[in-house]
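Hello,

I think I submitted the zinc ion job twice by accident. Can you confirm which output corresponds to this input? Input:
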Amino acid sequence: MDDRVLTRLRCPVCAEPLTAATAGTTRALRCPRGHSFDTARQGYVNLLAGRSPHTGDSAEMVAARAGFLAAGHYDTIAAALADTAVRVAPAEPYPLVVEPGAGTGHYLAAVLAALPGAAGLAL
Ligand SMILES: [Zn+2]
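Support: Only one job matched these inputs. Its output is below.
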């Protein structure tokens, strides 16, 4: 995980900073108190603590959304976001771009493509 993102994350249980840890093939984020959050095969980390009232989208729902976005139906929105980011983002230090409710990360990817050197955090 990019250190510019990692340094901004906190353990959802105790609020201590998180660090990346690897044990064999398992990658995780851990806090000094021992709370651990595995990195999924796809590269994301679920920082929800306890049971979530929402189970999230199914794989089928995500695939349908990704297919719809890949067809270009909302490319105008992605381009507008990228253009705006280029106009308002500082050149240095490179910004951390956060997309709450990021879904597939489609729009965040468009912004990051327009801002080489920026880091992204999809929530
Ligand atoms: Zn903790």
